[in-house]
Write a structure and sequence with these properties.
It is a single chain. By secondary structure, the chain is an alpha/beta fold. Helices cover about 45% and strands about 25% of the residues. It has 13 helices and 15 strands. Strands 7, 8, 9, 10, 11, 12, 13, 14 and 15 form a nine-stranded mixed beta sheet that branches. A hairpin with a 6-residue loop joins strand 13 and strand 14. Helix 3 (about 80-90) runs parallel beside helix 4 (about 105-120) and helix 5 (about 145-160) runs parallel beside helix 6 (about 175-190). The chain is globular and about 65 Å long. Bound molecules: 4-hydroxy-3-methoxybenzoate (VNL). The site of 4-hydroxy-3-methoxybenzoate (VNL) has 14 residues, from helix 6.
């Protein structure tokens, strides 16, 4: 009698574990399509984001809420038509639950209609023109917006004996956002704009623009160039003798990108910028992030790397919150209002706009242990995208 009970239990046990093994094999998969420029001039940006995404997966495992996470990485070569086609294929053929990446504004704008039609959440990890999140109700952003990063720069300049400024920006979405935000805020604080220069995005030659800026004799030159162009800009800045002209360099922190700052050299010492991330941001969360990122990729993270890392963090949190839902509306609604501690500091997804709310730091380039860093010295807490705030 007892023996048969034991036998029964054993048989049952075997049956249960067989069933468990079966369900593990058939474990549901959640697919994430990551589209980035991984060839062409913006390869370092794509690589930063990809490394951030992969680091988050490596440190947090690839099973969330009992589901296996599968990352599918695609290279758009910074061609908007390609980004859109890849997104379409990922949705239709691979049946991804999430689209992610988007290195530059035109790539994100081209893909927005796909997210809307397919009702697939689209996590913008890099591109930073304010209007992007308004192009689809399925877009949620973990990078930043240029107006968000720029307004504190205008405030700082106005308070620090800078009266006359020439602006020099890359001639597309984020540059025009930066120019407009700076101009309006700086003027309202009593500053004057002595010139507005726009440089083509493709293969830019900054030299003639720098000469014009110099001729206008401003107190400061406000610059936005996208990450990946700051090294070229820095080189031409020095070749034109701008570093010895007495004209200060200011701008959102794209121009002192942590990834290339040391390549730009000591001429950058003392440059003040405003941005949401510095590799030198204090605290345990960033320390661990920088160490792990450097170990994994061989280079330091910049704001693009952190955008990728947090984008994946947001996706994991949404999978947990929705128990792995595949419904785009459910997912985006779960993301609204989410908060977490990023390597950059505290962040929140604005429940209304789906843009990221974050601290903007005022930083100065300093040398520590022989290396250049953007050292934060002042914090403007939890800044929302000012363009969307103005529309309320
Ligand atoms: C964008 C904005 C791209 C800021 C960037 O680097 C950047 C964009 C490639 O929205 O296109 O630093």
């Amino acid at each position: 009698m007892l023996l048969s009970k034991i036998k029964q239990a054993l048989v049952l046990g075997v049956a249960v574990s067989a069933a468990l093994a079966g369900s593990a094999q058939a474990q549901e998969v959640i697919k994430i399509g990551l589209i980035l420029p991984l060839t062409g001039p913006f390869t370092p940006i794509g690589k930063q984001v990809e490394n951030g995404v992969k680091l988050f997966m490596a440190t947090h495992g690839s099973t969330v809420a009992g589901k296996k996470i599968e990352l599918i990485v695609k290279d758009d070569g910074n061609v908007a038509d390609t980004t859109r086609r890849l997104a379409q294929e990922l949705v239709v053929n691979d049946k991804v639950t999430y689209l992610a990446g988007f290195g530059l504004t035109p790539l994100a704008l081209a893909t927005a209609p796909i997210a809307t039609q397919a009702k697939v959440p689209m996590i913008v990890m890099a591109a930073a023109t304010a209007i992007i999140t308004e192009q689809s109700p399925f877009i949620v952003r973990t990078s930043f917006t240029l107006p968000q990063a720029t307004i504190p720069m205008a405030d700082w300049a106005a308070k620090n004996k800078i009266g006359k400024v020439v602006t020099l920006v890359s001639d597309y979405g984020p540059g025009i956002d930066a120019e407009n935000a700076f101009k309006a805020r700086f003027a309202s604080a009593g500053g004057s704009i002595a010139g507005e220069l726009r440089v083509p995005l493709a293969s830019p030659d900054f030299a003639p623009f720098l000469q014009r800026a110099r001729d206008a004799k401003p107190d400061a030159l406000f610059v936005f160039v996208p990450a990946g162009q700051s090294a070229t800009f820095g080189k031409q800045f020095v070749e034109r003798g701008m570093d010895k002209s007495g004209i200060r360099l200011i701008g959102p922190g794209d121009v002192t990108d942590d990834d290339v700052l040391n390549q730009m050299g000591d001429v950058m010492l003392g440059v003040v910028t405003t941005h949401h991330y510095s590799v030198a941001h204090p605290g345990a969360v960033n320390k661990a992030f920088v160490e792990a990122f450097t170990k994994q990729s061989g280079g330091v993270p910049n704001f693009m790397g952190v955008g990728g890392y947090d984008g994946m963090q947001l996706i994991y949190k949404a999978i947990e919150a929705t128990k792995g839902s595949a419904d785009g509306i459910t997912i985006v609604n779960a993301m609204r209002g989410m908060t977490w501690e990023s390597p950059r500091g505290p962040v929140q997804i604005d429940p209304r706009t789906r843009d990221i709310v974050q601290n903007i730091y005022v930083r100065k380039v300093e040398k520590k242990d022989g290396k250049l860093y953007n050292v934060e010295f002042s914090t403007i807490p939890m800044v929302k995208d000012p363009v969307k705030e103005a529309k309320r």
